[in-house]
# Entry
Amino acid sequence: MTTIAGVARVTVLGAGTIGASWCALFLAKGLDVVAYDVGPDCERALLAFVEAAWPLLGELGFAPDASISRLRYRSDLSAACAGTDFVQECAPERADLKVALLETVDGLIRPDVLIASSSSALTVSEMQTRCRHPERVVLGHPFNPPHIMPLVEVAGGAKTAPEALDRATRFYEALGKSPIRLNKEVYGHVANRIQAAVFREAIHLLASGVASLVDIDKAITDGPGLRWALMGPFLTYHLGGGVGGMAAFMQQFAPVQQKLWAELGSPALDETLQAEVIEAMRREAGGRAMADLVHRRDESLVALLKSRSDAAAERDD
# Structure
Protein backbone atom coordinates (compact mmCIF):
# COMPACT_ATOMS: atom_id res chain seq x y z
CA MET A 1 0.00 0.00 0.00
CA THR A 2 1.34 3.42 -0.99
CA THR A 3 1.57 6.09 1.70
CA ILE A 4 2.28 9.70 0.78
CA ALA A 5 3.04 12.14 3.62
CA GLY A 6 1.14 9.87 5.97
CA VAL A 7 -1.83 9.47 3.62
CA ALA A 8 -2.86 6.09 2.21
CA ARG A 9 -6.58 6.65 1.62
CA VAL A 10 -8.24 9.81 0.31
CA THR A 11 -11.92 10.65 0.36
CA VAL A 12 -13.07 12.96 -2.43
CA LEU A 13 -16.37 14.71 -1.72
CA GLY A 14 -18.08 15.43 -5.02
CA ALA A 15 -17.43 13.54 -8.26
CA GLY A 16 -17.99 16.34 -10.76
CA THR A 17 -15.30 17.75 -13.05
CA ILE A 18 -12.89 18.79 -10.28
CA GLY A 19 -13.58 15.84 -7.99
CA ALA A 20 -13.14 13.30 -10.77
CA SER A 21 -9.89 14.94 -11.79
CA TRP A 22 -8.57 14.79 -8.22
CA CYS A 23 -9.57 11.10 -8.09
CA ALA A 24 -7.57 10.39 -11.23
CA LEU A 25 -4.49 12.09 -9.80
CA PHE A 26 -4.67 10.32 -6.42
CA LEU A 27 -5.09 6.95 -8.16
CA ALA A 28 -2.11 7.65 -10.43
CA LYS A 29 -0.03 8.24 -7.31
CA GLY A 30 -0.99 4.81 -5.97
CA LEU A 31 -3.42 5.92 -3.25
CA ASP A 32 -6.72 4.30 -2.32
CA VAL A 33 -9.56 6.65 -3.27
CA VAL A 34 -13.17 6.75 -2.13
CA ALA A 35 -15.39 9.13 -4.07
CA TYR A 36 -18.65 10.39 -2.59
CA ASP A 37 -21.57 11.82 -4.55
CA VAL A 38 -25.34 11.44 -4.65
CA GLY A 39 -26.02 12.67 -8.16
CA PRO A 40 -27.62 10.42 -10.78
CA ASP A 41 -25.20 8.37 -12.90
CA CYS A 42 -22.20 9.84 -11.05
CA GLU A 43 -20.42 6.53 -10.59
CA ARG A 44 -20.46 5.74 -14.32
CA ALA A 45 -19.39 9.28 -15.25
CA LEU A 46 -16.57 9.20 -12.69
CA LEU A 47 -15.16 5.93 -13.98
CA ALA A 48 -15.41 7.16 -17.58
CA PHE A 49 -13.48 10.31 -16.66
CA VAL A 50 -10.71 8.41 -14.89
CA GLU A 51 -10.34 5.91 -17.72
CA ALA A 52 -10.13 8.73 -20.27
CA ALA A 53 -7.51 10.58 -18.19
CA TRP A 54 -5.40 7.48 -17.51
CA PRO A 55 -3.25 7.45 -20.70
CA LEU A 56 -2.13 11.06 -20.24
CA LEU A 57 -1.42 10.46 -16.57
CA GLY A 58 0.75 7.57 -17.69
CA GLU A 59 2.80 9.95 -19.81
CA LEU A 60 3.48 12.02 -16.68
CA GLY A 61 4.44 8.86 -14.77
CA PHE A 62 2.57 6.36 -12.60
CA ALA A 63 3.47 5.39 -9.06
CA PRO A 64 4.25 1.64 -8.67
CA ASP A 65 0.85 0.96 -7.05
CA ALA A 66 -1.18 3.10 -9.46
CA SER A 67 -4.41 1.38 -10.43
CA ILE A 68 -7.96 2.38 -11.29
CA SER A 69 -9.05 -0.65 -9.26
CA ARG A 70 -8.18 1.33 -6.13
CA LEU A 71 -11.22 3.55 -6.74
CA ARG A 72 -14.39 3.05 -4.71
CA TYR A 73 -17.65 4.96 -5.04
CA ARG A 74 -20.02 5.61 -2.16
CA SER A 75 -23.33 7.46 -1.98
CA ASP A 76 -23.34 7.19 1.83
CA LEU A 77 -21.21 9.92 3.43
CA SER A 78 -20.38 7.94 6.55
CA ALA A 79 -19.17 4.98 4.49
CA ALA A 80 -17.13 7.27 2.27
CA CYS A 81 -15.33 8.80 5.25
CA ALA A 82 -14.62 5.55 7.11
CA GLY A 83 -10.90 5.03 7.65
CA THR A 84 -9.84 7.98 5.51
CA ASP A 85 -6.54 9.81 5.96
CA PHE A 86 -7.31 12.94 3.93
CA VAL A 87 -10.49 14.63 2.67
CA GLN A 88 -10.55 16.66 -0.55
CA GLU A 89 -13.87 18.54 -0.73
CA CYS A 90 -15.17 19.31 -4.23
CA ALA A 91 -18.84 20.14 -3.66
CA PRO A 92 -20.64 22.83 -5.72
CA GLU A 93 -19.53 26.41 -5.04
CA ARG A 94 -22.26 27.28 -2.54
CA ALA A 95 -21.32 28.51 0.92
CA ASP A 96 -24.35 27.02 2.68
CA LEU A 97 -23.75 23.61 1.12
CA LYS A 98 -20.03 23.54 1.93
CA VAL A 99 -20.54 24.74 5.51
CA ALA A 100 -23.11 21.99 6.16
CA LEU A 101 -21.02 19.31 4.43
CA LEU A 102 -17.84 20.15 6.31
CA GLU A 103 -19.74 20.21 9.60
CA THR A 104 -21.03 16.69 8.95
CA VAL A 105 -17.71 15.31 7.72
CA ASP A 106 -15.93 16.86 10.70
CA GLY A 107 -17.97 14.58 12.94
CA LEU A 108 -17.25 11.44 10.91
CA ILE A 109 -13.46 11.40 10.66
CA ARG A 110 -10.53 11.21 13.05
CA PRO A 111 -9.50 14.56 14.58
CA ASP A 112 -6.07 14.34 12.90
CA VAL A 113 -7.45 14.03 9.35
CA LEU A 114 -7.18 17.19 7.25
CA ILE A 115 -10.16 18.56 5.35
CA ALA A 116 -9.03 20.46 2.24
CA SER A 117 -11.56 22.44 0.24
CA SER A 118 -11.23 22.86 -3.52
CA SER A 119 -13.31 26.05 -3.36
CA SER A 120 -12.38 28.44 -6.15
CA ALA A 121 -13.42 31.57 -4.27
CA LEU A 122 -14.89 31.00 -0.79
CA THR A 123 -12.73 31.54 2.28
CA VAL A 124 -11.87 28.85 4.81
CA SER A 125 -13.03 31.12 7.65
CA GLU A 126 -16.52 31.00 6.21
CA MET A 127 -16.52 27.26 5.55
CA GLN A 128 -15.11 26.14 8.93
CA THR A 129 -17.60 28.07 11.09
CA ARG A 130 -19.62 25.05 12.27
CA CYS A 131 -16.83 22.48 12.56
CA ARG A 132 -15.92 21.04 15.97
CA HIS A 133 -12.31 20.82 14.76
CA PRO A 134 -11.90 23.92 12.56
CA GLU A 135 -8.15 23.81 13.11
CA ARG A 136 -7.79 21.03 10.50
CA VAL A 137 -9.77 22.76 7.71
CA VAL A 138 -7.61 24.23 4.94
CA LEU A 139 -7.91 25.46 1.39
CA GLY A 140 -6.48 23.12 -1.25
CA HIS A 141 -7.65 24.87 -4.41
CA PRO A 142 -6.36 23.30 -7.63
CA PHE A 143 -6.25 24.73 -11.12
CA ASN A 144 -8.38 22.88 -13.66
CA PRO A 145 -7.71 20.10 -14.56
CA PRO A 146 -6.19 19.05 -11.20
CA HIS A 147 -4.83 15.76 -12.54
CA ILE A 148 -2.55 17.72 -14.87
CA MET A 149 -2.10 21.30 -13.65
CA PRO A 150 0.57 21.60 -10.92
CA LEU A 151 -0.81 24.57 -8.98
CA VAL A 152 -2.56 24.17 -5.62
CA GLU A 153 -3.38 27.23 -3.52
CA VAL A 154 -3.11 26.52 0.22
CA ALA A 155 -4.62 28.82 2.82
CA GLY A 156 -6.10 28.72 6.28
CA GLY A 157 -9.00 30.38 8.00
CA ALA A 158 -9.25 32.27 11.27
CA LYS A 159 -9.23 29.00 13.23
CA THR A 160 -6.86 26.90 11.09
CA ALA A 161 -3.76 25.60 12.86
CA PRO A 162 -0.41 26.45 11.22
CA GLU A 163 0.53 22.78 11.52
CA ALA A 164 -2.44 21.85 9.31
CA LEU A 165 -1.18 24.19 6.60
CA ASP A 166 2.29 22.66 6.81
CA ARG A 167 0.89 19.13 6.54
CA ALA A 168 -1.32 20.01 3.58
CA THR A 169 1.60 21.65 1.80
CA ARG A 170 3.83 18.62 2.36
CA PHE A 171 1.11 16.29 1.06
CA TYR A 172 0.57 18.26 -2.14
CA GLU A 173 4.32 18.59 -2.70
CA ALA A 174 4.72 14.84 -2.26
CA LEU A 175 2.05 14.36 -4.93
CA GLY A 176 4.22 16.37 -7.31
CA LYS A 177 2.03 19.45 -7.15
CA SER A 178 3.28 23.04 -6.89
CA PRO A 179 1.56 24.53 -3.82
CA ILE A 180 1.60 28.21 -2.97
CA ARG A 181 0.73 29.59 0.47
CA LEU A 182 -1.57 32.58 0.91
CA ASN A 183 -0.52 34.89 3.73
CA LYS A 184 -4.11 35.99 4.23
CA GLU A 185 -7.55 35.13 2.89
CA VAL A 186 -9.07 36.95 -0.06
CA TYR A 187 -12.11 36.10 -2.15
CA GLY A 188 -10.98 34.17 -5.24
CA HIS A 189 -7.50 33.48 -3.79
CA VAL A 190 -4.56 34.38 -6.09
CA ALA A 191 -4.68 32.72 -9.51
CA ASN A 192 -8.41 33.23 -10.07
CA ARG A 193 -8.11 36.92 -9.21
CA ILE A 194 -5.31 37.35 -11.75
CA GLN A 195 -7.28 35.32 -14.29
CA ALA A 196 -10.41 37.38 -13.58
CA ALA A 197 -8.50 40.61 -14.20
CA VAL A 198 -7.37 39.36 -17.61
CA PHE A 199 -10.85 38.06 -18.47
CA ARG A 200 -12.47 41.34 -17.44
CA GLU A 201 -10.30 43.27 -19.88
CA ALA A 202 -10.83 40.64 -22.59
CA ILE A 203 -14.60 41.09 -22.17
CA HIS A 204 -14.18 44.87 -22.28
CA LEU A 205 -12.13 44.74 -25.48
CA LEU A 206 -14.70 42.45 -27.10
CA ALA A 207 -17.69 44.55 -26.02
CA SER A 208 -15.95 47.74 -27.14
CA GLY A 209 -15.31 46.34 -30.61
CA VAL A 210 -11.54 46.63 -30.29
CA ALA A 211 -10.94 43.07 -31.52
CA SER A 212 -12.78 39.82 -32.18
CA LEU A 213 -12.98 37.02 -29.66
CA VAL A 214 -10.69 34.93 -31.86
CA ASP A 215 -8.03 37.62 -31.99
CA ILE A 216 -8.27 38.38 -28.26
CA ASP A 217 -7.66 34.71 -27.50
CA LYS A 218 -4.79 34.69 -30.00
CA ALA A 219 -3.28 37.79 -28.37
CA ILE A 220 -2.85 35.72 -25.22
CA THR A 221 -1.88 32.32 -26.64
CA ASP A 222 0.64 33.74 -29.12
CA GLY A 223 1.79 36.57 -26.85
CA PRO A 224 2.15 36.77 -23.06
CA GLY A 225 0.64 33.32 -22.55
CA LEU A 226 3.79 31.72 -23.95
CA ARG A 227 5.97 33.66 -21.51
CA TRP A 228 3.58 32.96 -18.62
CA ALA A 229 4.12 29.24 -19.13
CA LEU A 230 7.74 29.87 -18.17
CA MET A 231 7.68 32.81 -15.75
CA GLY A 232 5.20 35.00 -13.89
CA PRO A 233 4.43 38.70 -14.46
CA PHE A 234 7.09 39.98 -12.06
CA LEU A 235 9.98 38.04 -13.61
CA THR A 236 8.61 38.84 -17.08
CA TYR A 237 8.81 42.57 -16.41
CA HIS A 238 12.16 42.19 -14.62
CA LEU A 239 13.54 40.82 -17.89
CA GLY A 240 11.64 43.55 -19.76
CA GLY A 241 13.79 46.11 -17.97
CA GLY A 242 16.93 44.75 -19.61
CA VAL A 243 20.19 44.79 -17.68
CA GLY A 244 18.63 47.20 -15.18
CA GLY A 245 15.91 44.70 -14.31
CA MET A 246 12.76 45.74 -12.47
CA ALA A 247 14.22 49.09 -11.43
CA ALA A 248 14.82 50.05 -15.06
CA PHE A 249 11.37 48.77 -16.03
CA MET A 250 9.71 50.91 -13.38
CA GLN A 251 11.71 53.97 -14.35
CA GLN A 252 10.69 53.65 -17.99
CA PHE A 253 7.25 52.05 -17.90
CA ALA A 254 5.61 52.94 -14.58
CA PRO A 255 3.75 55.93 -16.14
CA VAL A 256 2.62 53.71 -19.03
CA GLN A 257 1.33 51.07 -16.63
CA GLN A 258 -0.49 53.70 -14.58
CA LYS A 259 -2.18 55.05 -17.70
CA LEU A 260 -3.18 51.54 -18.80
CA TRP A 261 -4.61 50.75 -15.36
CA ALA A 262 -6.65 53.94 -15.42
CA GLU A 263 -8.13 53.02 -18.80
CA LEU A 264 -8.91 49.35 -18.16
CA GLY A 265 -12.57 48.54 -18.59
CA SER A 266 -15.15 47.52 -16.00
CA PRO A 267 -17.86 45.81 -18.05
CA ALA A 268 -21.09 44.68 -16.44
CA LEU A 269 -21.85 41.05 -17.29
CA ASP A 270 -25.54 41.64 -17.89
CA GLU A 271 -27.67 39.27 -19.93
CA THR A 272 -27.02 41.16 -23.17
CA LEU A 273 -23.23 41.02 -22.81
CA GLN A 274 -23.33 37.39 -21.68
CA ALA A 275 -25.33 36.50 -24.79
CA GLU A 276 -22.81 38.34 -27.00
CA VAL A 277 -19.88 36.46 -25.48
CA ILE A 278 -21.66 33.10 -25.70
CA GLU A 279 -22.49 33.63 -29.36
CA ALA A 280 -18.97 34.74 -30.20
CA MET A 281 -17.60 31.66 -28.42
CA ARG A 282 -20.02 29.42 -30.29
CA ARG A 283 -18.67 30.75 -33.58
CA GLU A 284 -15.05 30.27 -32.51
CA ALA A 285 -15.69 26.69 -31.34
CA GLY A 286 -17.00 26.00 -34.83
CA GLY A 287 -19.06 22.98 -33.87
CA ARG A 288 -16.13 21.14 -32.31
CA ALA A 289 -17.29 18.78 -29.57
CA MET A 290 -16.45 19.76 -26.00
CA ALA A 291 -14.81 16.38 -25.39
CA ASP A 292 -12.49 16.96 -28.35
CA LEU A 293 -11.55 20.43 -27.12
CA VAL A 294 -10.83 19.11 -23.62
CA HIS A 295 -8.70 16.25 -24.97
CA ARG A 296 -6.71 18.62 -27.16
CA ARG A 297 -6.17 20.96 -24.19
CA ASP A 298 -5.03 18.15 -21.91
CA GLU A 299 -2.69 16.64 -24.50
CA SER A 300 -1.09 20.05 -25.05
CA LEU A 301 -0.76 20.68 -21.31
CA VAL A 302 1.00 17.35 -20.79
CA ALA A 303 3.35 18.04 -23.70
CA LEU A 304 4.12 21.49 -22.26
CA LEU A 305 4.80 20.12 -18.77
CA LYS A 306 7.10 17.44 -20.17
CA SER A 307 8.92 20.06 -22.22
CA ARG A 308 9.42 22.25 -19.15
CA SER A 309 10.66 19.27 -17.17
CA ASP A 310 13.10 18.26 -19.92
CA ALA A 311 14.41 21.81 -20.19
CA ALA A 312 14.93 22.01 -16.42
CA ALA A 313 16.79 18.68 -16.45
CA GLU A 314 19.09 19.92 -19.22
CA ARG A 315 19.87 23.08 -17.23
CA ASP A 316 20.68 21.01 -14.15
CA ASP A 317 23.06 18.86 -16.21
Q: What stands out?
A: The first helix runs from residue 17 to 28. The chain has a mean pLDDT of 96. The CA atoms of residues 89 and 117 lie 5 Å apart. The radius of gyration is 21 Å.
